[in-house]
């Protein structure tokens, strides 16, 4: 007989068994079939046969630039097709009329937590135009929510590095302000100097001992060229497992044999790929990448911001969209979609105490579904969320604060 602080009974696991989860000091101490659990606990919670899964990993979001919780901002179209510079300018204009950043970030965090995310990676603008101000604001909000969600912050040079003088120094200084990961943005098309851009990004990563996550929208063979450059540097610096590329649309645009060849390079260099399977864009072939050994993770990315009006902070819904757009029909493939927003996300973010297993942090979500494939296609709402064993969302409502 061992002791736990809380015993969660009636937890339906992925294989259908009803189990009891013991939690002590915020960690899972045991998972045993109901009835056979040899545990005593003062506090017993009956989960009533709900499907219990690990908290979702929101691997790519922008807490500083969303207008969720603010007045609706109608989308503005680019004048001649998608153009990153033009969108950045729309964003700058919109931001001058937005509600205070801390308020908007709180709304977005509570939305994500209510949907079951227990871990997050948010990019935050750091460049010579906005300085460190956005980062300071988001670091303070992160602290308010630290008992409900773990948040990594990426220093994101939205206005380029080489093209925006003073940004390289600020990106470095961001690591004295609470930043965790160094970002980048389209080294070729935005800064028009792949080598100089990557010199700064990898230089800071090496100096500060931090991971890398680069936004890469660049298309076709230009994007592939940049992926090859990033892979070469990751290998040269022994950074396998510490570098991610977000979007990498190019992988979905080039012929499949080029995508396969690049996937092998990425796998050897230990580079993770983030995709949110957005709207009408080609996106990386998830199964091909995974077959090659690449970690594929996901995130909401933009939620009601200057880039698009969509987004609901629901990583289970995101998994459904990835599965839907990838043509995932079999149970096996539906489980892949689920893995992308849970275990693969944890791997990409380097989380060490993640998962529904002994000694992991007791971060889990209850879903009204029989099993994972059903959860992916039905995207059940009214979830309850537990962070370190404490209920922070009850039936879809954030109750943490
Ligand atoms: Zn982004």
Highlighted features:
401 residues, binds zinc ion, 13 helices, five-stranded antiparallel beta sheet
- Strand proportion, as a percent range, falls in 15-25%
Query: What is the number of helical segments per DSSP (H or I, 4+ residues)?
Result: 13
Q: Which sequence of strands runs across the widest sheet?
A: 6-7-8-9-10-11-12-13
Query: What share of residues is helical?
Result: 25-40%
3D structure, described in words:
With 401 residues, this protein is an alpha/beta fold. The chain has helices at residues 84-95, 101-114, 133-144, 167-173, 194-208, 220-236, 250-253, 256-268, 286-292, 315-326, 331-340, 343-349, 372-378, and strands spanning 2-12, 18-24, 27-33, 39-46, 51-54, 56-61, 117-125, 150-156, 181-185, 211-216, 243-247, 271-274, 296-297, 364-367, 384-387, 390-394, 397-398. The protein is 34% helix and 24% strand. An eight-stranded parallel β-sheet has the order 6-7-8-9-10-11-12-13, sandwiched between helices. A five-stranded antiparallel β-sheet has the order 5-14-15-16-17, with helices on one face. α5 (194-208) links the parallel β9 and β10 (211-216). The protein binds zinc ion (ZN). The site of zinc ion (ZN) has 6 residues, from loops.
């Amino acid at each position: 007989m061992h002791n736990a602080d809380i015993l969660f009974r009636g937890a339906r696991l992925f294989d259908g068994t009803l189990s009891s989860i013991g939690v002590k000091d915020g960690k899972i101490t045991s998972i045993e079939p109901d009835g056979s659990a040899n545990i005593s606990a003062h506090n017993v919670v009956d989960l009533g046969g709900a499907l219990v899964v690990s908290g979702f990993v929101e691997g790519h979001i922008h807490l500083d630039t969303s207008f969720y919780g603010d007045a609706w901002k109608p989308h503005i179209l680019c004048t001649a097709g998608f153009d990153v510079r033009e969108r950045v300018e729309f964003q700058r204009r919109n931001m001058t009329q937005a509600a205070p950043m801390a308020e908007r970030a709180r709304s977005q965090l509570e939305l994500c937590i209510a949907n079951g995310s227990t871990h997050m990676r948010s990019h935050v603008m750091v460049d010579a135009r906005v300085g460190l101000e956005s980062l300071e604001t988001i670091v303070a909000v992160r602290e308010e929510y630290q008992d409900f969600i773990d948040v990594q912050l990426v220093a994101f040079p939205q206005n380029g590095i080489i093209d925006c003088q003073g940004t390289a120094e600020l990106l470095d200084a961001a690591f004295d302000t609470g930043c965790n990961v160094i970002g980048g943005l389209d080294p070729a098309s935005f800064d028009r100097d792949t080598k100089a851009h990557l010199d700064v990004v990898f230089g800071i990563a090496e100096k500060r001992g931090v991971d890398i996550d680069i936004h890469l929208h660049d298309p076709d063979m230009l994007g592939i060229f940049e992926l090859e450059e990033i892979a070469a540097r990751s290998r040269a610096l022994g950074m396998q497992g510490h570098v991610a590329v977000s979007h990498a649309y190019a992988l979905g645009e080039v012929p499949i044999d080029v995508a396969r060849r690049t996937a092998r390079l990425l796998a050897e260099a230990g580079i993770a790929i983030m995709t949110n399977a957005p709207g009408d864009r080609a996106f990386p072939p998830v199964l091909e990448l995974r077959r090659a050994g690449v970690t594929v993770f996901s995130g909401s990315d933009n939620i009601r911001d200057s880039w698009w009006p969509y987004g609901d902070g629901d990583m289970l819904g995101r998994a459904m969209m990835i599965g839907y757009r990838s043509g995932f029909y079999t149970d096996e493939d539906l489980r892949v979609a689920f893995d992308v927003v849970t275990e693969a996300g944890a791997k990409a973010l380097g989380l060490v105490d993640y998962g529904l297993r002994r000694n992991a942090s007791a971060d889990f979500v209850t879903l009204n579904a029989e099993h994972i494939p059903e959860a992916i296609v039905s995207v059940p709402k009214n979830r309850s969320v537990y962070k370190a064993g404490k209920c922070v969302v009850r039936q879809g409502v954030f109750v943490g604060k």
